[in-house]
Each structure stands twice: as structure tokens, then as C-alpha cells.
């Protein structure tokens, strides 16, 4: 996703992108669309690239980074996209600068926010270079690392959570009136969500709600149910996600110097 977003936006020329992957088919798919992209080994990417994104599951992160470390050098920037690995632990393992970025799937269409986290001692030029690169595919929001999980819940996980809520809303509408077919229900829900996103870019949610929900009306009655039930649901969702990240950190173990 990240490679395609950078290529489609023009942030990186195809000949300037080097891709390594455990599954050879994925880079081949990328090259069918952009033949100039280089498919290489991890070592070749680490040795030649200025900015290196490590996009693997958190349990695989440390072994991959330890394997890359001997090839890395000062002046490069190593970027991880998993929040579970602390920057302090990452910096101890490699000889180059480090950063953390949490992208979102909506950047495939040039929308959404990429969360960026930096150690306090990073070279300002490297920080600016990464932010400029990411600015081509969406908004860059720099946050303290301590807020990584809370913000990622909204940006990275947000599209999946929103899609699931919309799916359930469409299914509930069908349950209320079985004459409504699934395709129409989903089309209407998705269209409403797309339009709502555009409006929320122009006005606060309170204003939008007030424009739709007339006092004593049907929408107000539905909003009352959400007001009573949704906060507890979202607290459980975010608590569960935070707990899972904590479990992942423990499995990864304490950082060790490479």
C-alpha cells in the first residue's frame, strides 16, 4: 500500500524505489504496473536506500532490523510502521537515524493522516525529508510517541472500524425491512459516509448533527440510543486494542543493543 501510494502520488519515481519482500509475487505485481521499480534483497535495499521503511508484523520487526543493521550507515533514515517497537529500542539496534510512521490505507487515494514520531535528537534535515515525502500521500501529523496507540486507533485502524460500523448499519437497516436488498443498503450507507466525510472537512460534527436532527424527530431518537450505548462500546474497542499492543510489546521483549 505504501509503495503504491508513493508511486501514484509522484513522491518517488519508479526507478528510485527499491522493494524487498518475503513473497516474490507481491513485488512482481508492483513491477507489472511500474516496470522501473527495483526488486531486491533486504541487504541491497539497506545498503542503497536513503530512507528505508520496514513494513513487517511486530513480532518479526526485531529479527529483520537486526539482520539489516550491519548494512546500515549514518545518514540513512530507518522508518518502522509498527507502534509496538519503542524508538529508544530501535535506535540502540542500528547505526543510522530512526523514526516511526503509522500510515493508513486511505493514503492509497491520497487522503487520511500519516502519524510521524521522531526521537528528540534526530537530524532536522532527515525529519523534514520524511515529512516532505509523506506529504504527497496525505496529511502528516507529528505526535509524541506516547500518543501513538491512541492516535493510530483513529487513523490506521479507523478505516476498518468505520467500514465495520457502516456494514452493521446497512445490515440492521435490512433486518428492519427485509425488502431492502444488501447491495442497495450498502450503496446508500457508503454514499452517506463519503458525503459526511466531505462535510466534516468544512464544519464541526455538532453543526452537522444539528442540521440533520430536528428536535423531537426520528434522527434525534436514534442519536439518543447512540449517546447511551456507543461510548461504552468504543471504550471497550480501544481498551482491547491497547491491551493487545501491550501483549505484543511483552512478547517482543526488552530492547537490546545490536
Folded structure, characterized:
With 258 residues, this protein is of the alpha/beta class. It has two domains: 2-144, NAD(P)-binding Rossmann-like Domain (Rossmann fold, 3-Layer(aba) Sandwich); 158-249, Orthogonal Bundle (ProC C-terminal domain-like fold). The chain is 55% helix and 10% strand. The chain has helices at 2-9, 25-33, 42-48, 58-68, 87-93, 124-134, 148-155, 158-176, 182-200, 205-212, 218-252; strands at 18-19, 38-39, 51-54, 77-80, 97-102, 113-117, 139-142. The longest helix has 35 residues, at 218-252. The radius of gyration is 22 Å and the shape is elongated. The mean pLDDT is 92.
Query: According to CATH, what is the topology of the largest domain?
Result: Rossmann fold
| N-to-C series of helices and strands | HEHEHEHEHEEHEHHHHH
Uncertain segments of ≥5 residues (pLDDT<50)?
Answer: none
- Number of E-state strands: 7
Beta fraction: 5-15%
Quickly name the level 1 CATH class of the largest domain.
Answer: Alpha Beta
C-alpha geometry: elongated
**Total number of domains:** 2
CATH homologous superfamily designation of the largest domain: NAD(P)-binding Rossmann-like Domain
Mean pLDDT across residues: 92
Give the assembly state of these chains.
single chain
Amino acid at each position: 500500500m505504501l509503495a503504491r501510494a508513493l508511486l501514484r502520488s509522484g513522491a518517488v519515481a519508479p526507478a528510485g524505489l527499491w522493494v524487498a519482500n518475503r513473497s516474490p509475487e507481491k513485488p512482481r505485481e508492483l513491477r507489472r504496473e511500474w516496470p522501473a521499480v527495483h526488486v531486491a534483497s533486504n541487504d541491497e535495499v539497506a545498503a542503497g536506500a536513503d530512507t528505508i521503511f520496514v513494513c513487517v508484523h511486530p513480532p518479526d520487526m526485531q529479527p529483520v532490523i537486526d539482520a539489516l543493521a550491519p548494512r546500515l550507515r549514518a545518514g540513512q533514515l530507518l522508518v518502522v510502521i509498527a507502534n509496538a517497537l519503542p524508538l529508544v529500542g530501535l535506535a540502540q539496534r542500528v547505526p543510522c537515524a530512526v523514526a516511526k510512521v503509522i500510515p493508513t490505507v486511505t493514503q492509497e487515494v491520497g487522503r487520511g493522516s500519516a502519524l510521524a514520531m521522531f526521537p528528540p535528537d534526530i537530524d532536522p534535515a532527515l525529519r523534514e525529508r520524511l515529512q516532505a515525502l509523506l506529504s504527497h500521500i496525505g496529511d502528516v501529523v507529528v505526535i509524541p510517541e506516547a500518543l501513538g496507540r491512541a492516535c493510530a486507533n483513529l487513523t490506521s485502524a479507523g478505516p476498518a472500524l468505520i467500514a465495520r460500523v457502516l456494514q452493521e448499519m446497512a445490515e440492521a437497516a435490512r433486518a428492519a425491512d427485509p425488502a431492502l436488498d444488501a447491495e442497495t443498503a450498502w450503496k446508500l450507507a457508503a454514499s452517506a459516509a463519503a458525503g459526511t466525510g466531505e462535510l466534516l472537512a468544512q464544519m464541526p460534527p455538532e453543526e452537522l448533527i444539528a442540521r440533520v436532527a430536528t428536535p423531537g424527530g426520528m434522527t434525534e431518537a436514534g442519536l439518543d440510543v447512540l449517546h447511551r450505548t456507543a461510548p461504552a462500546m468504543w471504550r471497550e474497542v480501544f481498551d482491547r486494542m491497547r491491551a493487545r499492543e501491550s501483549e505484543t510489546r511483552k512478547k517482543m521483549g526488552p530492547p537490546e543493543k545490536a
